[in-house]
Amino acid sequence: MDIPSPLKLAVAIERWPIAGSFAISRGAKTEAVVVVAELAGGGFAGRGECVPYARYGETPEGVAAAILGLAPALERGLDRQALARALPAGAARNALDCALWDFEAKRTGRPAHELAGLPVLRPLVTAFTISLGTPDEMAKAAAKAAGRALLKVKLGAAGDAARIAAVRRAAPRAELIADANEGWEPGNLNENLAACAVAGVTLVEQPLPAGHDEALVAIKRPVPVCADESVHGRASLTALTGKYDAVNIKLDKAGGLTEALLMAEEATRLGFTVMAGCMVATSLALAPAMLLAQAARVVDLDGALLLARDRPNGLKYAASLVHPPSRELWG
Predict the structure, then answer these.
(1) Conformation bin of residue 51: beta by default, left when phi > 0, alpha when psi is -120 to 50
(2) What's the CATH code of the domain at 30?
(3) CB of 155 closer than 8 Å to CB of 180
(4) If I label 324, which of 127, 214, 271, 310 is the partner at 20 to 30 A Cα–Cα?
(5) Which of 109, 137, 153 represents a domain boundary (last residue)?
(6) Count of domains in the chain?
(7) HSE (CB half, 13 Å, CA atoms) of 300?
(8) 253 is annotated as an active-site residue
(9) Catalytic entry in 29, 152, 220, 250
(10) Tell me: the pLDDT tens digits for 55-107?
(11) For 120-143, what is each residue's pLDDT tens digit?
(12) Is 250 one of the annotated active-site residues of the chain?
């Protein structure tokens, strides 16, 4: 990538209200805090958005500082390959990587999918998340979304068998995937997986805490199990073989679209099913993941749908489909 020099950097921390609240096994939140990086030069500008994640020790201020620390290198022409050596995988690298993709697309007049060697992007069925709550609360939420093709059910607390059964009764025709967010333990693993199997769940994400998932090797899994918190970049994949059937690739964990695309190739080579996921964020964060999602078996890109409002030119959601981003948004 031939980057004009100097390339100027601007960074902003933004807060976007969530519609109601978003609850998982680790707690609930009412807003999405994101960091946006913008690169400008030669009359063009590119943007990337990331979500600092406390689970991995990230803060918005720390991520913004890490991005700003590369301003001199960006002025000297830092590209995506050099960025991968300059920052570890995580939110900061993701924002800059996606901003560089967007900048190149704007400068060359070629869409990002073409730069990545991919065919024209197509609309995809995305999951819609049912937040963790009581069985009655989750059943009510599921009933409102029962017409959607795919629901993602947050679990990870005592009484999960009742929760997944209630959701299934409320949404009898939807495909269900479940996400325990590390909330189960070896002692209730078999019981909870069996309850998911009875409810017709097709995938269970991260049942056990990362680093404590050896129990998955020793059991017969009645439902395919997907790694989320246990998987980051390509280097983390090999250790997951035999424990997981699928991997959830998120740009904020992988450190950007560049690594995520390479990671999907390697995951497929190792025999994993690929899931394309996201954090709760605006459409600017989700747009690059649409490239990754084209080859994914499961797509979970509903983060912007969970907000009270999205940014202008956001992704179009129609029924169960999420549509590719417009040029005005990204890429």
Answers:
(1) beta
(2) 3.30.390.10
(3) yes
(4) 271
(5) 109
(6) 2
(7) 28
(8) no
(9) 250
(10) 899 999 999 999 999 999 999 999 999 999 999 999 999 999 999 999 999 99
(11) 999 999 999 999 999 999 999 999
(12) yes
Same domain as 139, residue 105: no
The residue with greater pLDDT, 287 or 232, is: 287
Strands 273-276 and 8-24: unpaired
pTM score of the predicted model: 0.95
29, 106, 152, 154: the active-site residue: 154
Residue 116 domain-assigned (yes or no)? no
Residues 6+ apart with CB under 8 A from 209: 182, 229
Domain boundary among 54, 74, 109: 109
- Reading the block at residue 68, the tokens are 């700003």
